[in-house]
Amino acid sequence: MTEYTVEFVGTGETVSVSDKQTILSRCIEEGIAQEYSCRVGMCLACSAEIVEGEVEQPVAVARGLTEEEAERYALTCMARPASDLKLDRGKYPPSIEGDAESETETAAADD
Ligand code: FES
């Protein structure tokens, strides 16, 4: 088992995550406010842009990300670190950005 350091740019928060754990599970344990919902790779709420480093997330493409997006964005509920990482949370792959915006607009319209 190898431990990696995951840093969130913007807040500077860091968390140690093994290659056997998901980034989100460690954030929850450490009280880091990483957004999430489904925890099974379906809603994409937990997405973060990979500023530096690599992750293992073999399901990302099956969940709708393109191959290129799967290299640039981590679904933190499914992703395990493969190196030390710098992540920018709250950043979504372009192919789903439109969907997320329309859901937000729908939610706002319901208010
Ligand atoms: S929490 Fe839904 S995809 Fe990660």
* CATH architectural arrangement: Roll
> Strand order, biggest sheet?
2-1-7-3-5
Q: How many beta-strand elements?
A: 7
**Overall pLDDT metric:** 87
Q: Determine the CATH topology.
A: Ubiquitin-like (UB roll)
Structural class: alpha+beta
The helix/strand order is EEHEEHEEEH
Using only C-alpha atoms, the radius of gyration works out to 14 Å
Q: Count of helical segments?
A: 3
Number of domains: 1
Helicity level, as a percent range?
25-40%
CATH homologous superfamily grouping: Beta-grasp domain
What oligomeric assembly is this protein in? Answer: single chain
Question: In what range is the share of β-strand residues?
Answer: 25-35%
Query: How would the global form be characterised?
Result: globular
CATH class: Alpha Beta
The largest pleated sheet is described as:
5 strands, mixed
Family: Belongs to the 2Fe2S plant-type ferredoxin family.
Keywords: 2Fe-2S, Electron transport, Iron, Iron-sulfur, Metal-binding, Transport
GO molecular function: 2 iron, 2 sulfur cluster binding; metal ion binding
Cofactor: [2Fe-2S] cluster
